[in-house]
Structures are given as C-alpha cells and as structure tokens.
Amino acid sequence: MKDVFVITGGTGGMGFAAAETLSDRENTVILLADLSSDALAKAKQALDEHQAEVATVTCDITSEADVTYMADTAAHLGHITGVIHTAGVSPSMGDYRKIIAINAVGTVNVDRAFMELTDHRFSLVNVASMAGYMLPKLMIPKHAYKTVNRDTEVLYHRLVQHCQVLPKKNRSQMAYPLSKNFVMWYTEHIAPIYGSRGAHVVSVSPGSFDTKMGKLEKDKGAGAMVNYAAIKRFGTPQEVGGFLAYLVTDAPAYLTGTDILIDGGVVGQLRLRDMLRPESGARRLGGGA
C-alpha cells in the first residue's frame, strides 16, 4: 500500500515546497488540496516528473463536507501517513471574519477529519505563525478556545467577538495572530487524542518567508519583523517546506503537542529587547503582527 501525504494549500509557497521534497519518495502519493482547480493542475504538472504519484482535490477547508471528501479521497489512495496543513490567509487577504473562518475553524475541520483515519504511522503538522506569539497573555481568550469542544460555530462567533472590541480598521490585524495562536493551542489540545492512536501532531510557526502571501505583508506585519530577526532576510519556501516534509517522516515521531518556531530568531530577539525595555513590550505586542 502506498504512503499518502495530504497537503492543504498545496499550490502555495510552503505547501508546494513541502510537496517537492516529498515527491522524490517511491511508493508515495501526494494529494494536493486547494481552492483553485487551475492552480492545482499547474502544481500537479510541475510535480509529475518526480517519482511520487500526484493527485489533487479542490477543497474549501471552511466546509466540513469538502474536508470530509478530501480525507475520504486520501484514504482511497493508500495509507494516510501524513497531513501538512498549510492553508490559511493573512491580514491582507480578507476581513477578520474570513481570517477566523479559514485559519481557526478550517484547522479544526482538517484536524478532526483525520482523527479516525490515523494509526502509529501518522503525522499531522499544522502551520501557525510567529504572529501567534505576539499576543500578550492577557489578550489570549482560552475560555473562547475551549468552546471548540462544544461547536465550531460557537468558537467562530466567540473569536469574531474578540476582534470586535477593536476599531474596524484594526480587526484583521487582531484576527491573524489570534487565529494562529488558536492553531498552536488546538494542536496541543488534540495531541492526546492523536497520541492514543500512536500518532503525533505538531504546529510550526513560520516567520517572514518569501512566498506570495509573505510578499503581501512585506511592508507591514511579518515583513516588518525582518528588522528584528537574528537572520535579517526573508526565509525561502524550501527552508520551511523541507522542514514540514521532515516532520511527517518517522524520525521525529516522539515530538508532539508543541509548536516549533522557524522565524529567523525574531521572537527570541523581541523577547530579549522586551527584557531590556519592559515598558515598551506591552505597547508593541498589543499592535498585532
């Protein structure tokens, strides 16, 4: 039976780079999932010369029906070995409600869809963001996060309401770090469920990367954070894509329920700066990233 790797946002910079890394494996099927059928066709064509078989599925991750169909498709292709969930949007790609729906609720939909399809050879990687570290602890609504156990609609409305305390012009800038902080929390939250099946789940928080989405934030948000990095440049899609691909191999199987920063040292440098100038930290973090 072939190993199947599912990559949501598979036509984007990080997702496609992960697919390229995995595409040199034999006895492997890569299932690319994305919204655009045209983009999927182009991505498949670009990968067809490699050893792995490539399949595609059009999927809106905010739709439970779409995500269930994606998971069922993967199950029919072979043994689901890994899921790399990169699909998401940044502040420049939609209003705060869209950001919450895709980044937070979409992640719940994807992660839940594969829970019953896992075994000890399964790995799940959720892509969060270094922006998730930028929220002050007092602004992290874990009481709202916990509503995910009741209903994703309740979760959605609670997170939307959390953004609505700010003026309209600032809500997208709040929704992005909030949604990505939720991804980090949810990864930790579901780790025991996956662990009971011998599977592992981690989140990865990229910093400023030279992807299409990253370029949208070049003059603000993640782009501005390069100024604080220990390595003062944008990362390449291959640097993060290769790491995502590594995480769905057997090598890090004991790594679970945690977030991994791959941000060029931004968060570490900001923490150091805030230790030296604590009075400035709360004001900076309150602005989002």
From TrEMBL:
It holds the Pfam family adh_short. SUPFAM superfamilies: NAD(P)-binding Rossmann-fold domains. Signal peptide: none annotated. Keywords: Coiled coil, Oxidoreductase. Residues 33-60 form a coiled coil. SMART domains: PKS_KR. GO terms for molecular function: oxidoreductase activity, acting on NAD(P)H, oxygen as acceptor. InterPro entries: KR_dom (IPR057326), NAD(P)-bd_dom_sf (IPR036291), SDR_fam (IPR002347). Residues 3-158 form the Ketoreductase domain. Belongs to the short-chain dehydrogenases/reductases (SDR) family. This is Ketoreductase domain-containing protein. It comes from Secundilactobacillus collinoides.
